[in-house]
Design goal:
The chain is of the alpha/beta class and 325 residues long. The protein folds into two domains: 4-97 and 291-322, Rossmann fold (3-Layer(aba) Sandwich); 100-282, NAD(P)-binding Rossmann-like Domain (Rossmann fold), CATH 3.40.50. The protein is 37% helix and 13% strand. The protein contains 13 helices and twelve strands. The chain has helices at 13-22, 36-43, 58-62, 82-87, 100-115, 118-126, 155-168, 181-187, 194-200, 220-225, 243-251, 291-309, 321-324, and strands at residues 4-7, 24-27, 48-51, 69-72, 92-93, 148-151, 172-175, 190-191, 203-206, 231-234, 257-260, 280-282. Strands 8-7-6-9-10-11-12 form a seven-stranded parallel sheet, sandwiched between helices. A five-stranded parallel sheet has the order 2-1-3-4-5, sandwiched between helices. Helix 4 (82-87) links the parallel strand 4 and strand 5 (92-93). The radius of gyration is 22 Å and the shape is globular. The protein binds 2-keto-D-gluconic acid. Its EC number is 1.1.1.79, 1.1.1.81.
Length: 325
């Protein structure tokens, strides 16, 4: 008999077929408050769990006594209770390499769109407001040769540094727990304290995952250290930025603008003040959202689940210690 799995994300047709060859599947589109009871029910029998987005916590795991592997179609895993998975010796698999360049492209798009006011000005053109040669009230700020500050130098940080260095001739500062010689040698990046990065950078790109240590790492005090001409770009996880503090800083000119792909609450509530601020470019968490990259992530997650259920994990395990037991 094929092992049972619960899938909570729609799969491309060929990947669905591949899964069906290996497993008996109970399919959901997501794990939500509405369908949670059905998901818990389906988990009674499941040996594998595959998806992304929904919360996988202790309560859910308590309903999955036969679970042997979990695979997320994402690099981030803040939706998972990793300690609880590890305690149960269940490997959690993720897709850290599939989305690197696509997310770095999105970050650069936010840098450019915010600096050059692309969205705001395109809207004015569409509204028929382009009636004469544009003057200073339509001008933006330069990106090339300005200082790029990267907070969190993982794979995406490195890909961003590559773009900033070769594409825009930007000096690069970075803040990270460890030194990244590749970033230093290939892209001339310099490691510094967060305060120095905030004070000296023209673009502060925050690419950190959500952890207890990173929650509200950028708040009022940090924003006050930035140049009033600087742009903050947030593309890791929303709660790393204290959003009310950022809104204040954007309103009172503490910083020039913000480009955001992630938010404290997603989807962004309709009454968020961010929506009415002209110096904000807000995207709907699309860092990795190209057809190709989302397919590659899904394929990687499927491969990861098959490998984990076969006891054949070679890479991409979040809690590899469980494999040694
Ligand atoms: C998507 C992401 O939100 O990979 C991540 O951690 O944040 C994004 O790529 C996610 O993969 C949705 O499937």
């Amino acid at each position: 008999m094929k092992p049972s799995i619960v899938v909570y994300k729609k799969q491309p047709a060929d990947l669905q077929q591949r899964l069906e060859q290996h497993f008996a599947i109970t399919q959901f589109d997501d794990i939500t408050e509405e369908n949670r009871a059905q998901v818990l029910d389906a988990l009674q029998n499941a040996e594998g769990l595959l998806g992304s987005g929904g919360r996988v916590d202790k309560e859910l795991l308590d309903h999955a006594p036969r679970l042997r592997a979990v695979s997320t179609s994402s690099v981030g895993y803040d939706n998972f209770d990793v300690a609880e998975l590890t305690r149960r010796e269940i490997p959690l698999m993720h897709t850290p390499t599939a989305l690197t360049d696509t997310v770095a492209d999105t970050v650069m798009a936010l840098v450019l769109a915010t600096a050059r006011r692309v969205v705001n000005l395109a809207e004015r053109v569409k509204a028929g407001e382009w009636t004469q040669n544009v003057g200073p009230d339509w001008f933006g700020i330069d990106v090339h040769h300005k200082t790029m500050g990267i907070v969190g130098m993982g794979r995406i940080g490195l890909a961003l540094a590559q773009r900033a260095h070769f594409g825009f001739d930007m000096p690069i500062l970075y803040n990270a727990r460890s030194q990244h010689t590749e970033a230093e040698e290939r892209f001339g990046a310099r490691k510094c304290e967060l305060d120095e990065l905030l004070e000296k950078s023209d673009f502060v790109c925050v690419l950190l995952p959500m952890t207890q240590q990173t929650f509200h790492l950028i708040g009022k005090e940090q924003l006050a250290k930035m140049k009033s001409s600087a742009v903050l770009v947030s593309a890791g996880r929303g709660p790393v930025i204290d959003e009310p503090a950022l809104i204040e800083a954007l309103k009172n000119g503490t910083i020039y603008g913000a480009g955001m792909d992630v938010f404290e609450t997603e989807p962004l509530p309709k009454d968020s003040p961010l929506l009415s601020l002209p110096n904000v470019v807000a995207l709907p968490h699309i860092g990795s959202a190209t057809h190709q990259t989302r397919y590659d992530m899904a394929a990687c997650a499927v491969d990861n689940l098959i490998a984990a259920l076969n006891g054949d994990v070679k890479q991409f395990c979040v809690n590899p210690d469980v494999l040694k037991k």
